[in-house]
TrEMBL record:
It comes from Paenibacillus residui. The keyword DNA-binding does not apply. Catalyzes the dehydration of chorismate into 3-[(1-carboxyvinyl)oxy]benzoate, a step in the biosynthesis of menaquinone (MK, vitamin K2). This is Chorismate dehydratase. It catalyses: chorismate = 3-[(1-carboxyvinyl)-oxy]benzoate + H2O. It is an enzyme of class 4 (lyase). HAMAP family: MqnA. Belongs to the MqnA/MqnD family. MqnA subfamily.
């Protein structure tokens, strides 16, 4: 039986890369049933793990940590089959020359940080020294050979004439593996599924509708991105088009490889199962 007094708490990442899914979401239809909380990915990951939010986009790595308590929505993600344009490594020399050097990492991401560690270890055989820093490119590069930036911080830095070489991690992952990379997944705690199944269904359907609208009518969203962050209309049109917001077999395959590597390197404590929500039931993807 549904607990009709408890609101579903929806987390929202404070980055433009999720806009096509959130931009047209009809929150007014759920005023009595849901509320939104705006946070950076690492805060959102922690909040979902602690039960402070019930659903929302979290770092795909965070699902790997907390998968026993969560289920993933199909058709919703932030993924890329190649360039992602907002997960960028800035470095002074070619990447193969710095894989044993010092690399500054942002405190705002889990998926991208561990993707970098996987690529450097698995494909370059590198053993760099990592340290965490606030996402300011100039400050990060004062004491490092390279710096990783994500989201809007990466976008702004890519527009600056920094003189650094820039490597897109989505493109590099695809080059090495031939697969898609999923940076954020839409997760929901199993407890919320049990308590409010019909509200969860309607929220999911509203997110899918919002995604369709965001991709079909991006003009207003693009103008807002230009106003809040900068850049040209062409840049944002291409940015949103190059990202994939689906979450189906192609994304599952790339994500399973990411989790396998994460487990092999000791970044994850155990092998990860993909549990996918389907019509208020849960299916487990093994193949």
């Amino acid at each position: 039986m549904e607990n009709k007094t408890k609101k579903i708490r929806i987390g929202r990442i404070n980055y433009t890369n999720v806009w096509p899914i959130f931009y047209y979401f009809p929150m007014e239809q759920f005023q009595e049933e849901a509320e939104q909380l705006l946070q950076v990915p690492t805060s959102l990951n922690k909040a979902l793990a602690e039960g402070k939010i019930d659903m929302g986009p979290i770092s795909s790595f965070a699902y790997g940590q907390y998968f026993k308590d969560c289920v993933l929505f199909p058709d919703l993600s932030v993924s890329a089959f190649g360039r992602v344009n907002s997960i960028l490594l800035f470095h002074r020399r070619p990447l193969e020359e710095i894989v044993h050097g010092t690399i500054a990492l942002p405190t705002t991401s889990a998926s991208s940080v561990n993707l970098l560690k996987i690529i450097i270890s698995k494909y370059y055989g590198g053993r760099p020294t990592y340290f965490y820093a606030s996402p300011s490119l100039d400050d990060m590069m004062k004491e490092s050979d390279a710096a990783l930036l994500i989201g809007d911080d990466a976008i702004r830095a890519s527009w600056s004439r920094s003189g650094y070489q820039v490597t897109d991690l989505g493109q590099l992952w695809n080059h090495w593996t031939g697969k898609s990379m999923t940076f954020a997944v839409w997760a929901i705690r199993e407890q919320a599924l049990r308590e409010r199944p019909e509200v969860v269904r309607r929220i999911y359907e509203a997110f899918c509708w919002s995604k369709e609208q965001g991709m079909a009518r991006p003009e207003e969203m693009i103008r807002d991105a230009q106003s809040s962050i900068g850049g040209s209309e062409l840049y944002w049109k291409q940015y949103f088009q190059q990202l994939t917001y689906d979450f189906g077999p192609a994304q599952w395959e790339g994500l399973r490889l990411y989790y396998q590597y994460g487990w092999e390197l000791g970044l994850l404590e155990e092998p990860v199962s993909l549990k996918i929500w389907h019509d208020n039931s849960v299916i487990q993807v093994n193949e």
